[in-house]
Structures are given as structure tokens and as C-alpha cells.
Amino acid sequence: MGNTLILVGIGLVLAGIAYKFGLLGWFGHLPGDIRYEGEHTFIFIPLTSMLLVSAVLSLIMWLAGR
What we know:
The radius of gyration is 15 Å and the shape is elongated. It has two helices and two strands; from the N terminus they run αββα. It has one domain. The longest helix is centred in the N-terminal third of the chain and has 19 residues. The chain is an alpha+beta fold. It is 58% helix and 12% strand. The chain has a two-stranded antiparallel sheet. The two termini are 17 Å apart.
């Protein structure tokens, strides 16, 4: 459990660094992400982005289980 928490923490730090330097600017702007902007309303549903995250995490877990 401890090793898993350390790896998750390192992954979050790396994601934060990538976000800070603009390497994740494409994330949330993929085709299939729903964005609606009204006069007083903003709705954002990142369908494609979350499917991509799910696929990557599933692949990582599958590889870790082998």
C-alpha cells in the first residue's frame, strides 16, 4: 500500500508540473468534450478526456497486475 501511495504521489507531482508548463493544454479540448457557454451559464462535460484517462489508468493497472 505504501509503494502504491508513493507512485500515485509522484504521478500527481509530474502531472502538476506538466500542467504548469502548458504540456496539458490540449486536455479538455478534445473532440467529444461538451462545452456550452450561455449568457450566465457555463457547462463543461469532458467525455472524451475522461474516456482517455480511464483507458490509460486501466492499461496501467492491467500491466501492474501482470
